[in-house]
Structure formats: C-alpha cells, structure tokens
Amino acid sequence: MKKVFVSRPIFPDVIDRLRRYFEVDAHDGLALPADEIAARLADKDGAFIAGDPVGAKAIEGAPNLKVVSNMAVGYNNFDMQAFNAHGVLGTNTPDVLNETTADFGWALMMATARRITESEHFLRLGKWKEWSYDAFTGSDIYGSTLGVIGMGRIGQALARRARGFSMRVIYHNRSRVAPEIEAELNAEYASKEDLLKRADHVVLVVPYSAESHHTIGEAELALMKPSATLTNIARGGIVDDAALIDALRRKQIAAAGLDVFEGEPNFNRNFLTLSNVVLTPHIASASEATRRAMANLAADNLIAGLGEGPRAGNPPNPINPDVLKK
C-alpha cells in the first residue's frame, strides 16, 4: 500500500477517505519545521500539504515521492523547479474558494473604509460618551472607484460585486482579460500607475512570484490618494509591509485591510501600533463549506495522482501537467 503524509490537522472524514487507498501518516499538531517535513516525506509516495513549504531538500530526500497536493490555490510554498527536476507532480485547489474569498475581500475592504475595527475597539474600551458629527468618518464604497490588481477568478468575482454598489471598476493584470469579460464586469483596463492614482479602494488579488514581490511598495503607495484604502487578500510579499506601515503612520493613505503578511504568522508587529489598519489571520477562504471543498479537492488530486480512485492517473488540478506525460 502506498504511503502518504498529511502535514496539518484536517477534517477527519477526509483522512478517512485517504485511508481507503493509502497508509496515512497524519500530523495532528502545529506546523512542522521544514526539516521535519522533509524527514516525514522520506519514505512517502505522496503528500497532502496545507501551505507548508516543500523545497528541493525535501524532494531530493524522498525518492518514492510522486505527488504533493496543496490545499490552497497559490503554490509559492512549492519549489516547482525541484518538482519538475525529480518528476514530482504538484496540484492545487482553484475555483472552489473564489466566491468565499471575494466575499471576505469585500467585507475587509468595507471594514477598512468605514473604520469598523477602530470604532469597535473605541466602544469596547468604554470611550464612547457622546455622539459627534465627525466620529470615525470614513470613506464611501457606493459610487466610488474600485481598483483591482489581478483580474483572475477572484478579481472578477470582486468586480461583479461592485455593480451592486454602483462603483466604477478599473483593473490591472499581466494581460487584459477578454473584451466580453470587460463588458460583463463594466471594467476598464489601466496601467498599475494609473489605477493607483485613480482608485478610491485598491484590492490586491495577484498570485505571489518573484515578479510580483513587492508589487506595492514605497513608490506605489506614494501614487495613491490620501483618502484611498488598500486591501490585500492575495499573498504576503505582494506588499512591502515596512513601507505600508510607514505610509499608514504618516497618513499617506487612509487605511489598509490585510489578511496576509510577509513572514506570516510572524508578521511585522508594528502593525499593532496603528489604528488605521484592519488585521485578520489569513482567513479569506474560511467558511466551513469552502474549507471542506478545498480539503476534498486536495484529496481528489492526491488519490488520482497516485493512480487510485475513479479518476486514477487524471488528477483534477495538476500544476505541472508535463510530469504526468512522463
């Protein structure tokens, strides 16, 4: 029987599914360090990974490893060069979290614009003594301009939501989307610089890569309106967190909403000194239904990738499908 490793606690019924086909080594504690993950992979044929790094050292030390299934859309935690060099298939879980993540991005943007976290803290601390015309005045969503950087599936889901708020939508992407999608979303393509200058609310939904590292830094923040907000539901590293902290401290932009951070969970603690930032711990896809869908899709990928189940040899979401041909 093939052996698989599961790197984090997941739904027990998903573990039971894997046990129908494999001998399962399921880690049930906190995140493991990279060297421990490498050790656990050494004799395995496959792995179910929940965002943990799988690098060249781990791949080279696991001669039987054939499939690593990521319970996430992004796969910057995988060293794909090593995967390809050693014939290891990587898989991910796109699509099943699009709408849930867009919902959360919208909620985070609204909480940021309307200063919800800041005002709740004020109330909880017993500081609310009287009504004031200028207490926690924020910025409107309705009728404003939404700037989406990254017009993939989630970016498009965000743009669809903008119609209900009569927003103007501008977007920047590595390449323009099809004209019919622009028409459906009533979205206008813009350069990154133009978008940053015009948008009232900027939302980041780009995958992380070496090219997208610090897509938003000091120079980009300087282009934004003083009244603008920035929301990041993409990946840590897309934003230069130190530059953002400085911009928020100086009120160069009005506020930011962040679900992801550089070096998470060891994020820059200076964010905690700021009142004009809403912080959440990487939970944009965290509805139970969506997390279950992600876990089951990751299991489908692993089972099929290792030649088992109804889709044997044909996993739904290969990242590097050329490995399958070999």
Automatic annotation (TrEMBL):
CDD domains attached to this UniProt entry: GDH (cd05301)
Residue stretches making up the D-isomer specific 2-hydroxyacid dehydrogenase catalytic domain: 4-310
Segments for region (Disordered): 306-326
Residue ranges constituting the D-isomer specific 2-hydroxyacid dehydrogenase NAD-binding domain according to the UniProt record: 107-284
Record keyword Oxidoreductase present: yes
Keyword Nucleotidyltransferase annotated: no
SUPFAM superfamilies registered for this protein in UniProt: Formate/glycerate dehydrogenase catalytic domain-like, NAD(P)-binding Rossmann-fold domains
PROSITE patterns, sorted: D_2_HYDROXYACID_DH_1
GO cellular component terms attached to this protein's record: cytosol
InterPro entries given in the database record: D-isomer_2-hydroxyacid_DH, D-isomer_2_OHA_DH_cat_dom, D-isomer_DH_CS1, D-isomer_DH_NAD-bd, NAD(P)-bd_dom_sf
Keywords in alphabetical order: Oxidoreductase
One Gene Ontology MF term: glyoxylate reductase (NADPH) activity
Protein family membership: Belongs to the D-isomer specific 2-hydroxyacid dehydrogenase family.
The protein's name in its UniProt record: 2-hydroxyacid dehydrogenase
